[in-house]
Structures are given as C-alpha cells and as structure tokens.
Please model this.
Amino acid sequence: KISIRNLVILAALTFLGLITHLVPHSMGVSTVGALSMLAAAYLPRHLLLIPVFITVVAADLFVGPYGWAAMGFVYLAYLAGALVIAPGLGIVGPRTVLSAAALNAVVFYLVSNISQAMLFYPATYEGWIICYTNGLPFLARGILANVVFGSLAFGCIHLVSQHYAHRIALTQRN
Model:
C-alpha cells in the first residue's frame, strides 16, 4: 500500500523529472541523476525507481528512440545508479549529496557505455579502454550535472522546509 505522502512525492518527482528532462540539454548533462537522488532520499526503496523509469521512458517516447540496445543500457544505468545511491541518502547532507552525485554518475558511465563499447569499438581489451576513455568527458559532465542539479534541488527543499517548518514536515523516506 502506498501512503498519500509517498504518492504525492512520487507524482511530484515524476512531474519534475518529465519537465526538466524534456528541456533541451547537451549530451551528458541531465537532471535524471538528481531526480534519482531525490527519489532515493524521499521515497521508500520499492518506489524509488518509478519516477526515474517513467521520466526516461516518457522522454524517449516524446523525443523518439535512438537505438534499442543503447536505450536499454541507458535505462539500466539510470535504475542501477538510483539503487546504488539509495543506502547513502538515508540522511541528506552536503557530504552525502556530493557522494551520491559522483557515485550515480560513475554507475551511469560504467553501465551506459557497455552498449557503446559493443556497437562501436573493437571487441578487445583495447577497444573497451578506448571506449571508456572517450566517455570520460561525459562522466565529468554527468558528475557536474548531478552536483549542480542535486545541490539545487536539495537546497531548495531545505530552504522551503526551514521557512515552513511550522506548517510542514518533509521527512525522509520511511
């Protein structure tokens, strides 16, 4: 059973994810990492993948597919990143947000580049090394996007919760 609180957070994160992910952005700079950080912090584990999955699938349906193998690994990368960072976001703070931002981007980089390595590089050790080396600028952009968007989102939540502390209690996942 889903509580009203979790349903509202789920709907808000999904809406936020859809709106922000459809805004044109350069490759490697996405709000989905920050969305998964928010979901990991404020939703129970059994719900945290829902806003991430709906966001990426709906955006791809709107924009159009770009290759089923690549899309599959991108989806898997986003979902794996969300699951990996969830334990560390039990308590939100500067250190945990920055750690989650970096870890999420690294997981996305490692998983999403598998399809690139398989499709566009020789099936050798050197081919995989070249693929992942060529992906390093995207890793840097992913870390930067997660840090900026994640810090902005958690910072706004903190400011709103401080300002309206007497009216609302936005607690972390339960």
